[in-house]
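Suppose you are handed only these lines of text.
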Amino acid sequence: MPYKTIHVEASRSYDILIGNDILSKAGEIIGPIVGNCRLGLLTDSTVDKLYGKRLTDILTASGYTIHKYVIPSGEASKCADNLLKFLNFLAEHHLTRSDAIIAFGGGVVGDMAGLAAALYLRGVKYVQIPTTLLAAVDSSVGGKTAIDIPAGKNLVGAFYQPSIVCCDTKLMDTLAPEVYRDGCAEVIKYGIILDKNLYATLKTPQFDRESVVARCVEIKRDVVQQDEFDNGLRGLLNYGHTFGHAIEKLSNFEVSHGSAVAKGMLIAARLANLCSLSNITKEVEELLTMYGFDLSCNYSADELFASILSDKKRRGDNITIVLPYSIGDCRLVTFTIEELHDKLKKILD
Ligand SMILES: NC(=O)c1ccc[n+]([C@@H]2O[C@H](COP(=O)([O-])OP(=O)(O)OC[C@H]3O[C@@H](n4cnc5c(N)ncnc54)[C@H](O)[C@@H]3O)[C@@H](O)[C@H]2O)c1
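From them, the structure of the protein bound to nicotinamide-adenine-dinucleotide can be written out as follows.
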């Protein structure tokens, strides 16, 4: 079965394999990378119900012993309590440094399994098998791992690259439409920040999943290779996210991440327009609407601004926002916090 391979050069280099129904080859694919070992498999309840037995059977047939740990599906599971329970589970099953962890699920599972892999015995190999569109194009690439703590999302984590990523685009057939759409927000983001051809492809929402996922992964790979530890260029991947995170927080996470990012991308496009950098607002609005995103912002400039100020990405009295100069060309633009507040008032009030 043909599949695409994208190589990532980072502090640990690895391949990302993307294909339709590639899961059936998971044992053969991971074999040369993790060797003959035992596997601590982390998944969530929904993915386990749909595909847990299938993956276990595939890996068992390749000679692996699996120790599976299932967390309830949903963001609330990405917490310190579950992380510790999973680490303890690995220890109780006597997994050693030569064993490996598999993340089988969306970004919640991927982020927590990655952090567990970074911590357990000071670091063991881990394999990502992303099952959501968002995890495939975003969270399984680039080595950011994290859990949420009461003070905020993703506040505890590590940069820790996987040893291999095996992405089966067929698994996405069973995603709830709103979960799939959340992933589409990130896909659209890649088009706006760095690839106008990808953006053009997305004007057909029934896009070819395999090639679009592969292109997004390439874009993220290219950025991460230049700025693995998020000191500059990687900030481009946050297009729409500064405003999106603020909206997510203000809504008490009732607005999903993808929907919030969609709203954030439009606000950023309007900000670029206000700064006379570009005029792509209408185009971005039309594409996001075509995907079914509600683009209204139910918060005032003051509310949004207060929420932005508590963002972990803020540095001193300045704040850097990703703004589009045109489709496929986004840049980091730094504002003083007063300037940004002022401009947000013009856009939102
Ligand atoms: N590490 C990074 O670079 C990075 C980047 C972006 C997002 N994230 C993190 O990713 C998380 C969001 O990821 P997500 O959107 O994948 O959420 P998720 O993992 O919660 O998955 C969304 C829902 O889809 C279900 N699901 C997963 N695969 C399925 C399948 N194949 N069929 C049916 N249902 C399935 C899950 O059970 C869950 O209910 C957040 O915690 C976010 O912070 C991390």
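What can we learn from it? The chain is about 45% helix and 20% strand. Residues 4-174 form a domain with the Rossmann fold fold (CATH 3.40.50.1970).
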